[in-house]
Amino acid sequence: MPLDRCIGPGIVLDLTHKADNDPIGVADMEAALAKVGATLTDRTIVLIRTGRDQHLGSKDYWKTGTGMTAASTEWLLDRGVTVMGIDQWGWDLPFHAQIAKSKATGDNTIFWEAHRVGQRRPYWHMEQLTNLGALPPQGFEVAVFPLRIVGASAAPARVVAILR
């Protein structure tokens, strides 16, 4: 992850209304951004608030949540955003929801669809963020401090919001 991408203006998109296993689509992103009234740039760090951080530490944490679709991840990339994060267990739908969707449709390409966008277009997402509800929708900076692990595709990071 290039260090110059690790600090930038942050915005919080509120998707707390999304039900468990209901994916976050492009229309959801457009509506959430319209409520914030912000403009996305290649420096913006977008934080998706689902409210699922309240389940952190529970045995069902990994089973709760919504999730980004490939299309909504591409939507962010199309607007220049390459650093994004979410306050739930993972970026995609919970794994059991992916399994159910695959069984119902016979389509196994849906597994980790939002993650796999990164195979075509580089981007960095953060998972398991907390306290996004304590932030304003915009008007703050985000600093991401990932560990550098050679040859890894992921790493722990300390993510800090700096209020102005």
Helix/strand-derived category reads alpha/beta
CATH structural architecture: 3-Layer(bba) Sandwich
Number of strands: 8
Task: Determine the CATH superfamily.
Answer: Putative cyclase
The fraction of residues in strands falls at 15-25%
Task: Indicate the overall shape.
Answer: globular
Calculate the terminal CA-CA distance, rounded to whole Å.
25 Å
Task: Work out the helix count.
Answer: 4
The total domain count is: 1
Mean of all residue-level pLDDT scores: 93
Order of neighbouring strands in the sheet with most strands: 6-5-3-1-7-8
Which CATH class is shown?
Alpha Beta
CATH fold description: Glucose Oxidase, domain 1
Helix fraction bin: 10-25%
Uncertain runs with pLDDT below 50, 5 residues or more? none
Using the CA coordinates, give the radius of gyration: 15 Å
Task: Give your account of this protein's structure.
Helix content is 21%, strand content 24%. With 164 residues, it is α/β, with parallel strands linked by helices. The protein has one domain (3-163): Putative cyclase (Glucose Oxidase, domain 1, 3-Layer(bba) Sandwich), CATH 3.50.30.50. Strands 6-5-3-1-7-8 form a 6-stranded mixed β-sheet, with helices on one face. A two-stranded parallel sheet has the order 2-4. The longest helix is centred in the N-terminal third of the chain and has 11 residues, at 26-36. The two termini are 25 Å apart. The model has no long low-confidence stretch (mean pLDDT 93).
Short description:
By secondary structure, this protein is α/β, with parallel strands linked by helices.
